[in-house]
Amino acid sequence: MIFYIGVNLNSFALAFQTFDYQNEGLKFVGFDNLFANFINVFNEIMEKQYIQTALKNSIVLYLISLLVGTTLALLFSYYIYKKARFSKIFQIILFLPSIISGITMVIIYKYFAEISIPELIYKFTGGEIEGLLSNPNTEFAAIVFFNIWVGFGVSTLIYSSAMSGISPEIEEAAMMDGITPLKEFFLIDVPLIAPTVSVFIISSTATIFMNQMSLFSFYGANASNYDIWTIGYYMYSGISSSTTTLADYPYYAAFGLLFTFITIPITLLI
Fold it and tell me: pTM for the whole thing?
C-alpha cells in the first residue's frame, strides 16, 4: 500500500516539477508556469507524427482485443464448457502462454514468425517471403496476433468457469423448447456471465494507454519501426532510457497524467 500510494503521489507531483540543471535536482515549476509540462506534452502530440501513430495503434489494439479477443474467448469458453471433442487439449493449449515466461513465449513466437512461416510458404508454394516481424507491412499485425493469442487464455478459463455455474435446469428447459446451440450461446450463456465479461472489458479499457503490446519483450527500448509503437511503449521506452537522469521524468509524468484524465471518463462510461 505504501509503495503504491507513494509512487503514484510522487508521479502526480512530478508532473508539476522541472529539472534544475544548476543544482541537478527537481523543483516546483511555480504557479505562474504551473501547466508548462502539460503544454509541452500537448505540443509534442500535435507535432510528432510517431506519437500520433502510437495513439492510433493503442486504440486499434484495444478495439481488436475487445472485438476479436473477447469473441474468441467466449467461443472457446463455450466449447470447453460443453466438453466438446478435444476441449481438454484446447484448455491446456490456451492456458500455456499464461504459465510460461513471457520472454520464452516471445522467443518461440519469433522463431515461428521469422523462420517457420517463411519455410512453410516456400515448401508448399515455392515462394519466398520475409519473416513476419522483419517485414514492416506485416510486423504490426504479427505482434497484435501474438498479444491476442497470449492474452485470452486466462479469460477463456474464467468465462468457462462462469458458464459452469449456470443452473442446469435453465439449459434443460431451453433444450425442451428446442433451442439450438447457437441460440443457447447468445441468449442464455453470454447474458448470464455478462458481469464477468464486463469486468474484463472495463479492465482493458482502463489500461488502453498503458498497454505496450509486448514490444519491450520483442525489442527492448529500441523498436526502430515507429509505425508499431503504442502510447504505453512510448512512455515505457522513454522512462527506461532515462535511468541516468531525472530531466525527462516531469515530461513523462505529465504525459501519463494527461492520458489518465482521458481514460477515466471513457472507463466510467464503459
Answer: 0.89
